[in-house]
Amino acid sequence: xxxxxxxxxxxxxxxxxxxxxxxxxxxxxxxxxxxxxxxxxxxxxxxxxxxxxxxxxxxxxxxxxxxxxxxxxxxxxxxxxxxxxxxxxxxxxxxxxxxxxxxxxxxxxxxxxxxxxxxxxxxxxxxxxxxxxxxxxxxxxxxxxxxxxxxxxxxxxxxxxxxxxxxxxxxxxxxxxxxxxxxxxxxxxxxxxxxxxxxxxxxxxxxxxxxxxxxxxxxxxxxx
Length: 224
Known about the structure:
The protein has about 220 residues and is α/β, with parallel strands linked by helices. It has one domain (about 5-210): Rossmann fold (3-Layer(aba) Sandwich). The chain is about 30% helix and about 15% strand. It contains eight helices and seven strands, in the order ααβααβααββαββαβ. The strands form two sheets. It has a five-stranded parallel beta sheet. α8 links the parallel β6 and β7 (about 205-210). The longest helix has 13 residues, at about 75-85. About 35% of the residues are buried.
């Protein structure tokens, strides 16, 4: 990243704003006291906290698209550098044992050639006690993309899509797990992963995410 963009990101990233401690959405004024958004207060997710670097609409979006859709792996280094410059220090005191990237299905991995979440996660700085496990969390193949689906439909579609590899099940028990993803939209994917991890004995699940999408626009009231 050029010095100008890095300087802008250092002041505009989400660590400088009041965000929901569970899902990292920037809070509205009436939510500040509880430090929790209304959605998480009503329907508490399985994950315990979330930390996101920047807004999806911000300066890193094009770089992430180059990585994911144009297969330009060099952008993983630049994005991880941005994370390390702005987020690593803020998260250095988080106590966790393992870091797991959100997986792709074997079919999607063959099509893309790499898992963008792992390419980012493997380059980020974290405490030495945190071990990165790229193959502990696995995913079945989804026949249809969920990118354009509503939040409710995403939650239904993603149910049962993730599982823990047999060789890792025992070591995840009673541990705090960090899950790393490139983008958080509705939170359905990360919520399902947290459910699976806790069903397999994990005590706490923390999300680290590169980019966070904005809240869905609320429909305007109709005046009659």
